[in-house]
Amino acid sequence: MKKLKNFFSVEVIMGRYLITGGAGFIGSHIVEYLYKKSHKIRIVDNFSTGKWENIQEFTGKNVEVIEADIAWRNQLKGIMKDIEIVYHQAAIPSVPKSIKNPRATYRANVMGTLNILQAAKDAGVICVIFASSSSVYGTASNLPVYEDIPLKPISPYGASKLAGEHLCRVFSEIYQLNTICLRYFNVFGPRQDPKSQYAAVIPRFIDKMLKGQQPVIYGDGFQTRDFTYIMNVVKANILASACENNGEGIFNIASSSSRSINELVALLNTLLKTNIPPRYIKERANEP
């Protein structure tokens, strides 16, 4: 497994950073880190899922917020001006949403990524860090999962992220734009929205259990996940932007340990001091 440098040995160079999807769950944490280091930040978000409250305490003289949809190229004019590093987090990050509306997922995740790469190339950006996903692997039969195993996404979302990775590789090879693809594994942490029907499993379970309600498990609960804390994802992005890569690279961003969904419920019961059994229903199609 490829490794990034030690986070504590990296000093982020003062510059100007663009974070797409900067008002979202992961993007806002990258914004917070850079803001506290007094870097100049430009946030681009269409606020379809991102929230102003995620970033309102980080606004100031070094922070610029632009409301724009990256899928519409005419809305992106000038967003790369003076930008050196792009953290491309904007996406529709949901397998169920992608199955319900694959066209919207393609538009946001593939066309949006193409537009960002094109704008970055034209502006002479140093590096684009692309938020990919473990969904590119599909149903991996052998664990742990390494970056060089065959890829077979089983959802429009996974396919859209793989398409984004290919676009990054092509822009690196043809246009010499440095790109780093980070494959996130089941990220969790503060500011993650538990309310949506498409919410990630940890905030959704916590929300239910705090209300005395049974968490819903699709299938038998023995399926395993590698859960990754948000600050580890932030660190990975910062490390990626500091890499002297001169090309492109792909890295798994995970904890290197897995838990079953049943184990997760048991752990949450312990932490929340509850004793609520899960409710099992039929597993969802096209999810590993």
UniProtKB/TrEMBL annotation:
The chain crosses the membrane at residues 12-35. PROSITE patterns: ADH_SHORT (PS00061). Gene3D superfamilies: NAD(P)-binding Rossmann-like Domain, UDP-galactose 4-epimerase, domain 1. It holds the Pfam family Epimerase. Residues 18-254 form the NAD-dependent epimerase/dehydratase domain. The keyword Transmembrane applies. The keyword Membrane applies. It comes from the Bacteria. Keywords: Membrane, Transmembrane, Transmembrane helix. InterPro entries: Epimerase_deHydtase (IPR001509), NAD(P)-bd_dom_sf (IPR036291), Sc_DH/Rdtase_CS (IPR020904). Belongs to the NAD(P)-dependent epimerase/dehydratase family. This is NAD-dependent epimerase/dehydratase domain-containing protein.
